[in-house]
Specification:
Elements: H1 6-41, H2 44-71, H3 97-102
Helix pairs in contact: 1-2
Length: about 110
């Protein structure tokens, strides 16, 4: 990824890689379902074929996930805006809806 691509470029590249990983993962699920049917019906050839295909797609899915991870090389510290905390240093407290509902108005944390 080039330096001029920015966050949008990094996200677009990663989105494409994640899409490929999702497609491969869906193929694993499809083939495992075929294997289950083959096992239930005693269809040995279909079972073996589906298991082999599932293993191949699983390897492809794992590689695609690794590629997606590697594709996101955006340096948030390098592209930090003035006054903005980096993703690595930002501390966020997330409260569930139930916690917020239970809190008294005066007890709510500062935003």
């Amino acid at each position: 990824m080039g330096a001029g691509d920015g966050l949008e470029g990094a996200l677009a590249a990663t989105e494409a890689e994640v899409d490929a990983a999702l497609k491969a993962a869906a193929a694993v699920t499809r083939e495992l379902r075929k294997a289950k049917v083959g096992a239930a019906r005693g269809q040995v050839r279909d079972l073996r074929r589906a298991l082999t295909a599932a293993a191949g797609y699983a390897a492809e899915s794992a590689q695609a996930a690794k590629s997606a991870e590697a594709s996101f090389d955006f340096d948030d510290q390098e592209h930090q805006l003035p006054g903005e905390a980096t993703l690595g240093t930002r501390i966020t407290r997330v409260l569930s809806v139930d916690e917020l509902t239970r809190m008294k108005r005066d007890d709510r944390p500062d935003r």
